[in-house]
């Protein structure tokens, strides 16, 4: 079981990687829509 002390050390890098990835994908799709139409 994950303790509260070790939880942030896992959660922070996960958010740091996932959030920019989602932002880049949404930006990429937005650019692709502009090119196609």
Automatic annotation (TrEMBL):
It is found in: Plastid, Chloroplast thylakoid membrane. It is a single-pass membrane protein. Its main location: plastid. Keywords: Chloroplast, Membrane, Photosynthesis, Photosystem I, Plastid, Thylakoid, Transmembrane, Transmembrane helix. The chain crosses the membrane at residues 6-29. GO terms for cellular component: chloroplast thylakoid membrane; photosystem I. It holds the Pfam family PSI_8. InterPro entries: PSI_PsaI (IPR001302), PSI_PsaI_sf (IPR036357). One of its GO terms (biological process) is photosynthesis. NCBIfam families: PS_I_psaI. May help in the organization of the PsaL subunit. Belongs to the PsaI family. This is Photosystem I reaction center subunit VIII. It comes from Potentilla eriocarpa var. eriocarpa. The lineage of its organism: Eukaryota, Viridiplantae, Streptophyta, Embryophyta, Tracheophyta.
């Amino acid at each position: 079981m994950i303790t509260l002390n070790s939880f942030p050390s896992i959660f922070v890098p996960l958010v740091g990687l996932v959030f920019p990835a989602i932002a880049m994908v949404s930006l990429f799709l937005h650019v692709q829509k502009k090119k196609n139409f």
